[in-house]
Amino acid sequence: MTTIATTPTTTRTAGSSVVASIGVGLAATAAAGAATMIVAAAGEAAGISLDVSGAPIPVSGFGVLTAVFSVVGLVLAAVLSRTARHPRRAFVRTTVILTALSLVPDVIVDAAPATKALLMLTHLVAAAIVIPAVARRLSA
């Protein structure tokens, strides 16, 4: 009797790659949401007001908005992975531009200068977490 040795192979399908990317993106979203809440809470503890136009932003609001816009970024990544010739490059360029644009309302909002700076910092913290995590999962 002859035995044939075989080596197991693993293949990565497009579907499994998409699922893995979504998982990484959701983990980054959760991390970014937590990080922005920590930054906001630390700022508030340091005496920085979270009032914008006379209304306070709850610390949890930072996490919620971070999650919402991060999910929009995940949808953007999914669309670009199917339509762009270089999805990673397109995603990074687009999200960096969108991050820069997201700072504009913080600059013009009716709030103290320290509050404006804290708001901008939370945008940058979220972007620094989500953009690289998602970009690494996209093909170059």
From TrEMBL:
InterPro entries: DUF6069. The chain crosses the membrane at residues 18-43, 55-79, 91-111, 117-135. It holds the Pfam family DUF6069. Keywords: Membrane, Transmembrane, Transmembrane helix. The keyword rRNA processing does not apply. This is Cell envelope biogenesis protein OmpA. It comes from Actinoplanes auranticolor.
